[in-house]
Design goal:
This protein is mainly alpha-helical. 73% of the residues lie in helices and 1% in strands. α5 packs parallel to α9, α13 packs antiparallel against α15 and α17 packs antiparallel against α18. The longest helix is centred in the middle third of the chain and has 39 residues. It starts with a helix and ends in a 6-residue tail after the last helix. The relative contact order is 0.09.
């Protein structure tokens, strides 16, 4: 097909940094989990306790799936296959939509078609690169798992790796269909995120309604078979390997890809098969203000991340009665939670560690939301806006304010929901105000990352996203895996979280919060000064 090879080279050049970062991050952290989980969990007593508890707790079944047996392979599957699956799904959907729908939205696709390029060549090239990416990821994953641990029992590392690769390409195929349906990149990405959430919930419902099978494991009910997550989980690759469930995703791909090409042939460049929803004839009075416009651009990002954070803390609150039994019977797990969440009573320490995960989600929200500024600039929408009386400083300041206020609201609501769920659904009683203030104490960290984004946006706009996500990855790694790896203290101190109290289990320390706030302010001022004096960067 004319132009495919040249388009593949173009895609690889554009993503020469993003794709290696995705692959190495997903495979590297997964492989690093093996010695950590082995040293922390893999005693017979701990595995037996986990098997008894996680297989009987409805909330646990919904969140993590069942644990097939008291063995390390089952534990590793429980800890990784669903959560890594979510990240792999996002990697594939974001990649496909970026190189298809976003190209059309920017007008780049028309430029490509001005040469000798077949109409379907771009989608072919994107899917070839997506397939190759998943193959490389699965290969590295399998080799790493096999080299670091050779006692998987009856499990099949090859099946685990192949399952992850096939799962990723399923979501690439889904994204290929979404790009034909919607004419907006934002709508396509939003629908992809919704489908990932729905697929996860269907798998959870299937596990919740499942029954005990012949080998003593929980066999998922029919809703799980409607979900790619359910297909991956059904292979039971590290416990009772079964290659047969892979037929479901393979059949899906065989049907979905021709459907995507058929839909492509039935639409115009730049349009979607589903017509864009017509808005109101006139905007409301609020939307006609600069603040209203900013909120309109940011609201979907805010609502999506807010729902995710609230769901997380609500489930954590519901799990407290079961978690107390698990950790009371396992000193190793108690030590692990203490390392992540501070010192003191076990349940408050556990809740502080889980609140930290919600904080990491809110940090990701801040970066994602602020990236709208770069999108507006590169898409040339900002140039038209600045042609009015809308100043540069006001435009950037409003985006920053909406994000910081949104993060504060999410922190307050997360602390509130967690405390209310604990008080309502367990015998524990916690101070609601203490949890709200404890969650809000992480706001200076959000402000620090926001200030860093603004500074880089003014100095190095093209590199802003990559640098911020790298910083975020480092902070997440040091807060989650760093304590378990017992890294040197000077390495841990490179993360700002290591200087903050693990609230509410520990008393809030005001000095680090003040320092973070001052640094955030200085970075923000630097960013605004450089932003006012630089040219707009379109690509």
């Amino acid at each position: 097909m004319t132009g495919v090879w040249n388009l593949i080279k173009l895609i690889l050049r554009r993503d020469r940094v993003k794709l290696p970062v995705w692959i190495l991050s997903l495979t590297g952290i997964l492989v690093c989990m093996i010695p950590i989980l082995r040293d922390t969990y893999a005693t017979p007593e701990t595995l037996s306790t986990l098997h008894q508890q996680f297989s009987a707790v409805p909330a646990g079944l919904f969140l993590t799936g069942p644990m097939d047996g008291a063995n390390f392979g089952s534990l590793f599957t429980l800890e990784t296959i669903l959560w890594w699956g979510i990240m792999i799904a996002f990697m594939n959907t974001l990649f496909v939509i970026r190189h298809t729908r976003q190209n059309e939205e920017m007008g780049a696709q028309e430029l490509i078609f001005s040469g000798r390029v077949h109409r379907s060549a771009n989608l072919v090239a994107v899917l070839i690169v997506a397939l190759s990416t998943n193959i490389v990821m699965a290969t590295i994953m399998g080799l790493g798992m096999d080299s670091l641990y050779d006692a998987w029992g009856n499990g099949s590392v090859a099946l685990y790796a192949v399952t992850m690769g096939v799962f990723g390409f399923v979501w690439a195929s889904i994204a290929a269909i979404l790009t034909q349906l919607f004419e907006s990149t934002r709508t396509a990405n939003t629908m992809a995120a919704i489908l990932i959430g729905v697929a996860f919930m269907l798998r959870g419902i299937g596990d919740f309604l499942g029954e005990i099978g012949a080998n003593g494991t929980i066999q998922a009910a029919w809703p799980s078979w409607l979900s790619p997550f359910g297909w991956s989980q059904a292979t039971r690759s590290l416990t009772f390997p079964d290659w047969l469930p892979l037929l479901a995703p393979l059949v899906f791909v065989v049907v979905a890809i021709p459907l995507a090409f058929f839909m492509l042939s039935r639409r115009d460049v730049g349009s979607g098969l589903l017509p864009a929803r017509s808005g109101h004839a006139r905007a409301s009075k609020f939307l006609r203000t600069p603040l209203g416009l900013t909120w309109y651009l940011q609201k979907n990002v805010f609502l999506g991340w807010a729902c995710g954070a609230i769901a997380l803390v609500a489930v954590v609150g519901a799990l407290v009665p079961q978690m107390s039994k698990v950790y009371d019977s396992s000193p190793d797990l108690a030590q692990m939670i203490a390392a992540m969440g501070g010192n003191g009573a076990l349940i408050p320490t556990f809740l502080s560690a889980m609140l930290m995960i919600a904080v990491l989600m809110i940090l990701a929200y801040a970066i994602h939301a602020l990236s709208r500024t770069r999108v507006e600039e590169s898409s040339e929408h900002l140039e038209s806006l600045l042609g009015t009386h809308f100043s540069r400083t006001k435009w950037l300041g409003l985006h920053l304010a909406v994000v910081l206020i949104g993060a504060a609201v999410m922190l307050v609501v997360s602390g509130l929901i967690m405390a209310l769920c604990v008080n309502t659904l367990s015998s524990w009683s916690v101070d609601v105000g203490e949890y709200v203030i404890g969650a809000l104490s992480y706001w200076p960290l959000v402000a620090l990352l926001a200030g860093l984004y603004i500074a880089l946006f003014g100095l190095l706009p093209r590199a802003t996203g990559a640098v911020l996500w790298a910083v975020y990855g480092f902070i997440a790694f040091m807060s989650w895996i760093g304590p378990l790896m017992r890294l040197d203290q000077w390495i841990m101190d490179l993360s700002p979280l290591s200087h903050m109290a693990s609230a509410p289990a520990e008393a809030i320390r005001l000095t680090p919060l003040a320092v973070l706030s001052v640094i955030a302010l200085m970075l923000g001022v630097l960013g605004f000064m450089t932003w006012r004096n630089r040219n707009l960067v379109q690509h």
